[in-house]
TrEMBL record:
It is a multi-pass membrane protein. This is Branched-chain amino acid ABC transporter permease. Belongs to the binding-protein-dependent transport system permease family. LivHM subfamily. It is found in: Cell membrane. Signal peptide: none annotated. It comes from Nonomuraea turkmeniaca.
Length: 289
């Protein structure tokens, strides 16, 4: 039972990170109808930005995360600005463009930080909590809490603010949104910036739990993409549920199948997607190609 609970907590922790990555994918997809294949690389840049600023300046980790979000938010705006002339004209080139930006970000990380990567010390120095023999790392609770807070703030933004309502309107029908005076380009830019910020938050939080390196974005991007598909691409509740579900699946597969854990995880994922291709909360979306 102790091993089960330990694995459960670890799965929920990583699942919270996957949910943040999945929400970043989903907010861009639901607004523009575009899958941002550079998203995993943005997660990696966020991890590097936060860890470098944290270790170089010794500021509180929360400030380092804010700096990382600002850096990646700017990157998101740049990507959207380059892709904007292609919107509603050449969807394939837009997809290829995001792949190209991902390769550029990964190459840039190698040039700036090197190819070897580095470990990040835990920003929480307190001892793990001991509950009935189950040791819960304090940092895991921090990750879960921060991810939950970010999710709640994003939901409030989308539902209670004019900018959020505009993004929702663009997601439903960009032509109708344009007709009522909503600036579609501005909403798309905001979607990219928010998605990049969520990527930075995910990368920053997972940095102390993993080894930060230029290729980490590939793994996290694939798992976040799978989580978004599992929950239903374009659905924000689906991204949350899919992220946690994928994290639990990943954790229990690692605990029971060791070196075959990735194979088992994606086999189960493939079976679920074959049974329900639209995901748990799948929504009908409009292709704007």
């Amino acid at each position: 039972m102790q091993v089960f609970l330990q694995t459960l907590i670890g799965g929920v922790t990583f699942g919270a990170v996957y949910a943040l990555v999945a929400m970043g994918f989903s907010i861009v997809y639901r607004t523009m109808g575009l899958v941002n294949f550079a998203h995993g690389s943005v997660v990696m840049i966020g991890a590097y930005a936060a860890s470098t600023f944290y270790m170089a300046t010794h500021v509180p980790f929360a400030i380092a995360i804010v700096v990382a979000i600002a850096v990646t938010g700017l990157i998101g705006l740049v990507i959207e600005r380059f892709l904007r002339p292609l919107e509603n004209k050449d969807f394939t080139l837009m997809l290829i463009g995001t792949i190209g930006f991902g390769a550029v970000l990964e190459a840039g990380a190698v040039l700036v930080w090197g190819a070897t990567g580095h470990a990040v010390p835990s920003p929480v120095a307190t001892e793990p909590l001991d509950l009935a023999g189950v040791r819960i790392p304090t940092y895991n609770l921090v990750v879960i809490s921060v991810a939950a807070l970010a999710t709640g703030l994003l939901a409030l933004f989308l539902q209670r603010t004019k900018r959020g309502a505009a993004m929702q309107a663009v997601a439903m029908d960009h032509q109708a949104a344009t007709a009522v005076g909503i600036h579609v380009g501005r909403s798309n830019a905001m979607a990219f910036a928010i998605g990049a910020g969520l990527a930075a938050l995910a990368g920053s939080l997972i940095g102390p739990m993993l080894y930060v390196n230029p290729t980490m974005g590939g793994t996290l991007g694939i798992k976040g993409f799978a989580a978004a598909m599992l929950g239903g691409f374009g659905s924000m509740p689906g991204a949350i549920v899919g992220g946690v579900a994928f994290g639990l699946l990943d954790a229990f597969a690692a605990g029971n199948f060791q070196e075959y854990s990735e194979l088992v995880t994606f086999l189960v994922f493939a079976v679920v997607v074959m049974i329900r291709p639209t995901g748990i909360f799948g929504e009908a979306t409009v292709n704007r190609a």
